[in-house]
Design a protein that fits this description.
The structure holds two protein chains of two kinds. Chain A is of the alpha+beta class. Helices cover 55% and strands 10% of the residues of chain A. By secondary structure, chain B is an all-alpha fold. Helices cover 72% and strands 0% of the residues of chain B. Classes of the chains: A alpha+beta, B mainly alpha.
Chain lengths: 218, 184
């Protein structure tokens, strides 16, 4: 075996060789190793072997694909944060209880004024007609029927490129962006799982437009 | 403060863009680290849990250690928690399954065969040996950083990697690739 006994004859310098290769030794240790290598043929051979091992190891690691889970992660965070809202509201109420009396009176007056204003406007005393706010996507409530994808677009993706991509896959944006930039895209009904996977793969190839894409389960 | 430290500070202020950048820098590293202790599904769960913990607990990062040490330390705790109670054999079988799936059927070149044998040798190491090898060879962490993550003294880290390599070399020799000339 090429490897020698631990620390033997080399004052522990041989133990530092892997970190000498990765460049993570202190300046002092680096100098110590460098000096030692000048006069130690065995450590020089060992160093060369470590370089090869490390290179092979990194090649193997680089071949392992990592899952793209960013949209799901964002969805989980948003869900968790929504769950915290009620807790925040409760702690706010508790904190209000500790306010000094004048501040409490002022806050109560403000609340009454706002409530009065809302009531007055909702009664429409000036006859301004029916002014219901509608979005471009309205008035129907969107509830996706087909399979859905969670997508994050690249920062510099243009509206034109996104439109073209949606036409290509027959999809439409039904929700989003969330604060984390996730869109929900509905695909045509009737696609089987294999076809959806194919669409996901094709979107993953469009790296200049799509940053993350994942099938929405359930 | 380092660029990564500034990112953590921004995440503590709930900056979504900073979180996205940190994800891009670290998610793969966390996943690959966990993968050498767990199966693919669990490694993915651990990586997601670590990211969630970073989002929720960024303000707890005080800058006393490197960001990578802090993050991989969280991953190490979570992965070990999952490993606890699982038999060593079950863990080895899982790793074998995971690594077998990665071997392409048409890999015939010398380099590909070498990699295949190297993968097989790696899976015969103990989790402790695989972990220290991964942290030094792939994550490029210093002795001090590894000692903080695995929770053992500096000298133990050095000798553990030494013995890990020695064991790896012995296994490779049994496979007929122990001679330096066959490494290229």
């Amino acid at each position: 075996m090429d490897i020698k006994a631990k620390g033997e004859d080399c004052q522990g310098v041989d133990l530092l060789l892997p970190w000498y290769v990765s460049g993570s030794l202190s300046e002092e240790e680096k100098e110590r190793v460098k000096e030692h290598l000048k006069g130690c043929e065995r450590c020089r051979r060992e160093l060369e072997l470590i370089r090869k091992e490390r290179e092979l190891y990194r090649e193997i690691m680089d071949e392992i694909p990592a899952p793209a889970t960013f949209p799901r992660l964002l969805a989980e965070i948003e869900r968790a944060e929504r769950g915290n809202l009620w807790q925040r509201f409760r702690s706010l109420i508790k904190a209000i209880g500790d306010w000094p009396r004048p501040a409490l009176v002022l806050a109560a007056v403000q609340a009454l004024l706002i409530l009065g204003l809302i009531t007055t406007l909702s009664l429409n005393p000036w006859g301004m007609g029916n002014r219901v706010y509608r979005t471009l996507a309205g008035p129907e409530v969107i509830s996706p029927r087909g399979p859905c994808l969670q997508v994050v677009f690249q920062e510099d993706a243009t509206e034109g490129a996104i439109r073209e991509l949606l036409l290509e896959i027959g999809g439409k944006i039904v929700a989003g962006p969330t604060p984390m930039g996730v869109y929900l895209i509905e695909l045509p009904e009737g696609l089987d799982r294999q076809q959806i996977k194919g669409i996901v793969s094709s979107l993953r190839e469009k790296k200049e437009i799509v940053k993350f894409v994942e099938m929405k389960e359930g | 403060m380092s660029a990564n430290g500034l990112l953590i500070e921004a995440i503590a202020r709930k900056d979504h863009e900073a979180f996205r950048k940190l994800y891009e820098r670290y998610y793969r590293r966390i996943y690959l680290y966990a993968l050498y202790l767990l199966d693919e599904e669990e490694a993915q769960d651990v990586a997601n849990e670590v990211m969630m913990e970073i989002w929720r607990g960024a303000k707890r990062f005080k800058g006393r250690s490197q960001v990578s040490t802090w993050i991989l330390g969280i991953a190490a705790n979570k992965a070990r928690k999952r490993l606890r109670g699982r038999g060593e054999r079950a863990e080895e079988e899982e790793l074998e399954r995971v690594m077998d799936e990665r071997e392409g059927p048409d890999e015939q070149s010398h380099r590909a065969l070498l990699k295949e044998k190297f993968r097989k040798a790696l899976r015969k190491l103990t989790p402790e040996h695989r972990e220290v090898l991964h942290l030094a060879y792939y994550q490029d962490l210093s002795v001090k950083e590894i000692s903080e993550i695995v929770g053992c003294p500096l000298n133990t880290v050095k000798t553990r990697l030494f013995y890990a390599r020695q064991r790896l070399r012995a296994i490779l020799e049994e496979m007929g690739i122990g001679k330096e000339a066959t490494w290229t």
